[in-house]
Amino acid sequence: MNVRLAGQAAQPVAPTGTGPLLLGIDFGGTKMAVGVADRQGRLLARERVLTYAEQGAPQALDRALELAAKLVAQVGGPLTAAGIASPGVVRPDGIDLAPNVPGWDRLRLAEAVRKRLDVPAVAVDNDLNAAALAELRLGALRDADPGLVVGLGTGVAAAVTVRGEVLSGHHGAAGEIGYAVAGAARPGVMLEATFSGRALDQLAEELVLPGGAAGLAVRAGQPGGIRDALLARVDELARHLVTCCLLVDPQRVVLVGGVTGSDLIRGMLVERMAEVLPYPPEVVRSGFPDDAALLGAVILAREAVSAPH
Residue 277, exposed/middle/buried by CB under 10 A (0-12, 13-18, 19+)? Predict the structure, then answer.
């Protein structure tokens, strides 16, 4: 089971100043990305800012929309639709399962975007579902079915794709593996508290290592206690991904998010999965690991324009 880099992210093209525009916003627990695209979905401008999650949801939303208005004005042209990628399960009157930014559960994202930016069509979806949509339309899942997208960023989650569609589930919570029970003790802890960017940052702090998760991965390159501590966390994640693969039997698994930048972590994960799976899938790193959800948000906007009303 080999890991490869699946393509490269599309590069922004020069602004034209004419024609209808699409807006994409990717809200993350650590960073937020905003992009403006033409009606074909080609990015004309994009910018990333810190979320400052500890300061709460209202300021994050306000700064993201302020940035969106600025980029739309810079590019020039009428804004016809917006796509929003958000953590959690998005409902019309709030958001479930999004604990990383205080107050995020009380936001009404579509309503806020529509009102602030005067945009007629707004589509909102879970951030990893948006990333999976980008992989289906532009990336590593264009020729693979079924597919599994695994997000390893501030948190951890998965998305399943079948026959060109992202599986949302009955409540819209399909793939929320961060809530899986990890460890043998009862009642156990959430997988996200064991393996995620935030969990690895905390492990690095406990081991008195600078650089958070990235610094931990570098130091774990040598045999010893630090490597063993990281490997124990990877083993826990691998067990859950093995179960996902046994249920779905994916042709390809796509890894997205900042944590996937570590060759060591990817290699450990692939090795553990290959040891036990009867039909190991191909495992690739996304060609746009940090921008998949943003590109997916733009696709949501594009498809909102073409959807029948």
Answer: middle
Strand order in the sheet with 31-38: 43-50, 31-38, 21-27, 79-86, 121-126
Dihedral, CA atoms, 245, 246, 247, 252, nearest 10 degrees?
A: 30
Identify the pLDDT of residue 4.
Answer: 39
Instruction: Convert the pLDDT of each residue in 255-279 to its tens digit.
Output: 999 999 999 999 999 999 999 999 9
Q: Tell me: the pLDDT tens digits for 201-216?
A: 999 999 999 999 999 9
- DSSP string covering 65-96: HHHHHHHHHHH-S-EEEEEEEESSEEETTEEE
165-166/89-91 β-pairing: unpaired
pLDDT reading at 67 higher than 60: yes
